[in-house]
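Troubleshooting log. The previous run stalled partway through. Resubmitting the same two chains, unchanged.
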Amino acid sequence: MSKRQLSRRQFLKGTGAGLASLALGGASSGSLLAQGGPLQFYGWDFQPDTIRQHLDNYTAQSGTPVELHIIPNVGYSTGIQTKILGGVHMDVYYNFKYNSTRFYNAGWARRMDDLPGAEEAMGEMFASSVPSYTTPEGQLISMPYFSAVHALHYNERMLSASGFDAPPQTKQDLYDQCAQLKADGVDTPYLAYWVKEFCEEYLQVYLLSEGITPFAPNGEPAFADDAKTADVFEWWQAMFQDGMTSPTMLTDQPGEQMTAMQNGDAAFYVLHHYFLKLMNAGGGPEVEHLRIADRMPGSDGMTFQMGEVVQMSDGPNVDRSWDLVKFYTWKDAAGERSVHKSWAAAAALGAPYPDFFDDPEVQANYGDFYDFEQIKGMFENNSDVVQARNQPWYSEFQTHVGDEIQRMLQGNLAPAETVTSLADKVLELRDQYS
Amino acid sequence: MASARIDRETAQRRKHWDRKWIPYALLAPALITILIVIISPLLTTIYYSFSNVDLIFNRTTFIGLENYQELFTSRLFWKAIEINLKFAAIVVIVPTLMGLFFALLLVEDFIGRGIGRTLLILPWALPWIVIGLLWNWLVNAQFGAINGLLYSLGLIDKYIPFMADEDWALIFTALASAWRQTSFSAILLLAALQTIPEDLYDAAKVDGAGLRARFRFITFAWIRPTLTIVLLYNIVLGFLQFDAVWIMTQGGPGDATMLLSVLLYRETFINFDLGMGAAVSNVLGLITLGVGLFFVRLTYRSQAAYA
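Second attempt completed without errors. Output:
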């Protein structure tokens, strides 16, 4: 009996010692990670093999090993926040732009403008793109994972067949061209990605195209002070209710919409510039006639520039982390934009650097259906990043926009009421987050 | 002598200690696991629902009933309750009845039964995200298979934009969920049906029981416990379904498919309002628990009436 008890005690002792050594081992390996082991890179699950390839290339170039951690796109923000709060160290990570300031304020992201080469990197960007990566005070807190501009894609042949020799210049033009196309048998000439999550990007596109300032530099809802905002909403509502778009536009996904463009079931499509490549890759009877308009229809013709970012944390690995950030978001050791070029080849993702669009390799990968001067021009002179989107309250505003815009499109909310509702929400959130 | 008595007393005390504490020691790992995995998150969620949780600065401030007050005065919340009840009704009724139908069909011996049983498992084997994408294509207004079928049968002369209509959007998101759940329900019920002894039917036939009587007093009575489980699963899904609906509509068009689970996701993972998310979560949990218990009691009460 006493032998059995002894052995049980020994067993418990042994197990305890084993667990303790495992825990200590884990802790020490965790601290090793933070103090000079492999860099910890976190990203979401868009082409993880390509990300791995980039990191392997970086390791080959610098000799620094990098561990890749992939988190699903849905719930990515919460995933990384939970990990950081739980003590997980991330050296470099993807982030959604709307989270960049929030992470910086929390001390989870380091400013980069004091690091070597940062000024040069910012200097190489389109001037219009820089506010995307900085605080309102001008501190660099993120770098570009990818960039894109919203563009009006149109079917040149269908427009010509309906008697139009150029894409629409104003919103009224666009409505009129749609009405004519509809009369000529195209049931739903206009497509837009108006699902709830995306209505906010369209809000920016339509406001900017009319020359409306969406937000003041301090985040005030400047759009509410411009009478043209209600006009934009009225046009938006008319397009939907008069049947210029598919009635299923509030739930349709890009896959269905691209197919409609590829087959000639629609003649206009507003979405990121890289969708032209995706539609060409998809094939179909009408793809050779698809073009991008030089400007968004509207009195000002501006469009919205979007993209997501890469951030880095502070700590003992700053130099190595910054080196990796530069490789991933700017240039490799040979001065090549190899990572951005690779994303261009994979999905025609853009980068906010003018020379990127001049690169023959990028041009070859994008395809000859692109006019690179045009895309460059849109980035350079004809787009805005809307810096308020970096603010911590923005994601909640984004949700509200989706609800209210869909209610308005369905006729359950008047355009003027929509303007008031959106402005009130901004004020409420700014107050709440201040 | 005295030493022997002390040894005996010590041994007895040890024995007594063992008898008293060993059961607890043996239960401890399971209890600790339950405490960590279930009780602790549950208590945290309840606490969060009365708090303002700031994820960034890791601050939690107790605010009493504020989250619940805001929730209960929100237009969207009551709309979500109404929509969720309709959605749950479809997701409970359709898979239970269809599952029973397929189970009764596939328990019979006929050529192709093996293929039928294999096909039955397929929807269940698909992830919810795939189900959402699949049904999005099925109901598409331009090239959807459902429109194609109705058109080729001559039932419609023009493709219908189902997802533009609030009622149809709710029905089809519910049917997408019901489709996969039918498969699961049928598998469980088929397993139960296969355990019914053939002798019972033979005896009932000898006693002159007809088809309806045999179904009611043998088949139905036998599978009732499994049916209760199926019903419970379907109720839980009816209130907690999220993935397929999010993929298909994100709660739209308008508020047409704004389930409580969608509201919960938005509050927690998009707005990062953990306090409000926890409040929605608690309400959702209570509703699911209440409806589930009601049906279980109902089923067992009628079972007692049979006994």
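Takeaways: Chain A touches chain B at residues 74-75, 77-78, 81, 85, 102-103, 105-106, 108, 195-197, 246-253, 256, 259-260, 265, 392, 395-396, 398-399, 402-403, 406-407, 410, 412 (CB under 8 Å). Residues 38-147+307-368 of chain A form a domain with the D-Maltodextrin-Binding Protein; domain 2 fold (CATH 3.40.190.10).
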